[in-house]
Amino acid sequence: MGEKVLRASRVKSAALAVGATLLAGVVSVTTVPSVSSAATPVPPVSTFTLSSFNVLGSSHTPPGGRRAPGTTRIVWANRLLDRHHVDVVGFQELQAPQYTKFMEITAGSWDVYPGLQLRRLDSDNSIGWRTDRFELVYATHFDIPYFDGNPRTMPLVLLRDKATGMLAWFANVHNPSRKSNAHWRRVAERYEAALQVQLYGTRLPRFFTGDLNDREVAFCNVVRNAPLKAARGGSLRDGVCDADRPRAVDWIFGAKKVRFSNYVEDRGTLVAKTTDHPVIVTDVAVPSSRFPASLGPVPAPFTDLVTYRRR
């Protein structure tokens, strides 16, 4: 009996000794200054979801037609924005009744430029953003040639990501349709590319959404003349352009240093009754390490913004 007690006491003593040694080791390790603890914080990355969305203007679906009126379809459009978790959207054909209804049903959760701040018809091409994710820093507009070369106003906004403080440019356009306007589409693409070159000088992230009413030709003209890439892919290597057989005339472009992922062209049932276009959506990641100016001061307003003027 005494031997068992003695052995137990030795085991206990040995265990306590080992525990004390381990504890001392732990304490000694935790009290040594850590080099990693003094490391520079990881630069922020702005992540969000971007869309290009031609909502089919109200004037195309008058009462009594086969499609629901624009004010009904914009409610479905909002459901699609929610479904895809869109944070920023380039709208085309957002006519005044649809804009008014959209602002009513979203009740302050979205802001839009220009909406009805300019001419009534200029709401057609607007940029929207969720107000809990982004805030407007600067808003302006530029012109491109539309039908028969007549100038049409398009929006440009500088937004700040509320989570990271990072700045980014967003432009949105709708180029003229019909074969008879092919020349004016080419001219519009040149002005749109020139604007992106001008914005490149600010060293901020840039995004460009739109219904370009062209597929391969639009892609190649844009990436040849501006430092952009398309969210859906495609390439320009050694002067050879490969648009990768696009199905849609709707596009999302961004600066070459941004990251696109999860690109979608939604042609589902809800989309089909909402509009005559697919809904284009992509996730975006913008590392501030690649755009250090995005955390800096707001650039001065442009006094010579690229814009089209009919001669």
Produce a short descriptive summary.
With 311 residues, the chain is of the alpha+beta class. The chain has helices spanning 2-31, 70-83, 96-106, 182-200, 216-225, 269-274; strands spanning 45-54, 88-92, 110-113, 126-130, 134-145, 151-161, 167-174, 206-211, 228-230, 235-237, 240-242, 250-255, 259-266, 279-287. The chain contains six helices and 14 strands.
The poorly predicted ranges are 1-32
> What is the CATH H-level superfamily of the largest domain?
Endonuclease/exonuclease/phosphatase
Per CATH, the class of the largest domain reads Alpha Beta
Q: Can you name the CATH architecture of the largest domain?
A: 4-Layer Sandwich
Q: What does the radius of gyration come to?
A: 27 Å
In the sheet with the most strands, the strands line up as 3-4-2-1-14-13
Kindly state the mean pLDDT as a whole number? 90
Secondary structure class reads alpha+beta
Q: How many domains would you count in the coordinates?
A: 2
β-sheet strand percentage: 25-35%
Question: Span from first to last CA?
Answer: 112 Å
Q: Write the H/E string, N to C.
A: HEHEHEEEEEHEHEEEEEHE
CATH fold annotation of the largest domain? Deoxyribonuclease I, Chain A
Tally of DSSP β-strands: 14
Gross morphology is: globular
**Largest sheet, strands/sense/barrel:** 6 strands, mixed
Binned, the helix content reads: 25-40%
Q: How many helical elements?
A: 6
